[in-house]
Amino acid sequence: MVVFAGQGDARRTMALLWRTDEPGSARTGPGPRPGLSVDAIVDAAIGVADEQGMAALSMRAVGERLGRTAMALYTYVPSKSELVDLMHDRALAELPTGYDLDAGWRAAATRWAEDAWDFYLRHPWVLQVSQARPVLGPHEYAVLEALLRILRDTGLEPPLVRRVVGTVFQFVRAAAQTVAESRQAGPETGVEDTEWWYTRSALMAEVAPDFAERYPTVHWLNSAAADSAAAAGDDDDVPYLVREAKRTFEVGLTVLLDGVEARIRPVG
Question: What are the structural domain ranges in the chain?
Fold first, then answer.
């Protein structure tokens, strides 16, 4: 499921994101009961998405969580389209806005990526909000600003910094998405990862008994991975894909930052 941001009224959405016009914040006359606000609605919506996923998100579901009708929310948030933008930006407020550079840009960049990884796994629905059209909210810019400050410290020219930022963002999102989808697969399909893999591994031996001869390099890699897992004493309670995605994230981030470092100090 992909959700595109920026589908609501542009002026109304930007006003809500930047809080230049917050309805209901100081009502004294007739109107909605006190206690409801844009922030309360957005927090409730995040709660729905965290617990049930984006597919369950609706103005009605948010209203029920607040003990109100869906109609009561429209005074504050015009529609679900604007609500998604507000949710995305408010969730990003959890991320740090600055990192200590005393240990160097690389340590700070690693910490930024780890924080983003943890954030995406706390709020996997955020990964369903497409980056093709950014939300353009204050917290989205604060996250970008934090990473830009780190990479500016590398001394790389601005065009390259811009591309590295995009690469780091996309790398962390993609790695986290694998874990998020693996966690979602069992409840969605009714088949847990372990059962799924065991069933198909057994069938593979039947349908392709010559697998090792047909795909020798794949067989070599799988055998090496199995030996490595056995030596490491992997916890079988942790799904294979989750373990591998975490390791891919750690190794991939190291290699990515190695490449950045190489551009700073080219060989020769």
Answer: 10-92
